[in-house]
């Protein structure tokens, strides 16, 4: 039988079109799998949104579960002379601070030289820098050094105690030194070379001694070599900005607690909003959220409701006692007056309510533990994600097997159609030959 290179050539039939229709019909078997796979991918994405919202809520609960939050202090500064920060060792109190002088750096310049980039030394030598109350420092100067080379040698030495620049006074170039640290002891006083000096220190005209800061705290005189004063007030760092008067109040950091509680409420409401979107249903359009009726979501909502409404012993036993109420739509709402009163006057009771005596005793600790159970490796949400991923992988394998089966079926059809095409072509040839023979026989019989 002759070989047919293109279906339909031999028979004149549209076998390619027929084969395409059969292939479309066969691939229709993949559509249910594709829909199931899309559903699982959508669920995985939705579980991811739920997981993210739960994690954010857990972070906010963990912040409230830290007893140090309710013990933190802040500084309230009046006046422009200082800024201040408090650490864990600070104690509540009020202080009057008077800044008389700021700490400054000592400066000194050299005599002038004609050029900055040409050699002014012949032999290698040492440059000694002398300070008011600190040890002298020795800088190695190479032979044939220019003023720029001497500057670079000073700046490259981490122990030099000064920074060096070059200043042009309009006629000559000068080496200008500035103490790296503020204060009288760190002040540069002079310098000298141990060999032929290329220039001298201009101590008469350019020497400006560094000074210590002078201030009083509640009338007590204090000096500091820097403008950052530690220890003058226990646990408080004073940063001197300018000469003048300021007040410092060290008090409970109510703002930090307020922000932590507000973040907790906002994170829960965001979680509630995410769940609402994922489980929504529009009766008019029939559109449904990705996790409508999902058992994992129902478990999350039930566990959250129990954790938020459970009471505890103490001055504050429920969220409503501190001004946080559960609304009809399931969200939380803050009564600012009640919350501010609890924060301002009862931080100890607030700490006991949220943080408790141990990490899991308070409401925030119990809630964080519940969230960990939901989000952990064996938790409800993680299990739902794993289940959806496993189903998705199974569907992909099923899809691949089905696709391979379809390809094999279509390949078999193509072979059969080729055989059919060849057979019909041969039959057509035989029919044409017989017709010719019969026509010739009829013509011969007609002549006889």
TrEMBL record:
Subcellular location field: Secreted; Bacterial flagellum
Flagellar hook-associated protein 2 C-terminal domain mapped to chain residues: 210-429
InterPro entries: Flagellin_hook_IN_motif, FliD, FliD_C, FliD_N
Limits of the Flagellar hook-associated protein 2 N-terminal domain: 11-104
Secreted found in the keyword field: yes
Classification via Pfam families: Flagellin_IN (PF07196), FliD_C (PF07195), FliD_N (PF02465)
Origin superkingdom: Bacteria
Keyword Acyltransferase (UniProt): no
Keywords: Bacterial flagellum, Cell projection, Cilium, Coiled coil, Flagellum, Secreted
Main localization of the protein described in the UniProt heading: secreted
Family per record: Belongs to the FliD family.
Subunit details: Homopentamer.
Free-text function comment from the UniProt entry: Required for morphogenesis and for the elongation of the flagellar filament by facilitating polymerization of the flagellin monomers at the tip of growing filament. Forms a capping structure, which prevents flagellin subunits (transported through the central channel of the flagellum) from leaking out without polymerization at the distal end.
Protein name as it appears in the record: Flagellar hook-associated protein 2
UniProt organism field: Vreelandella neptunia
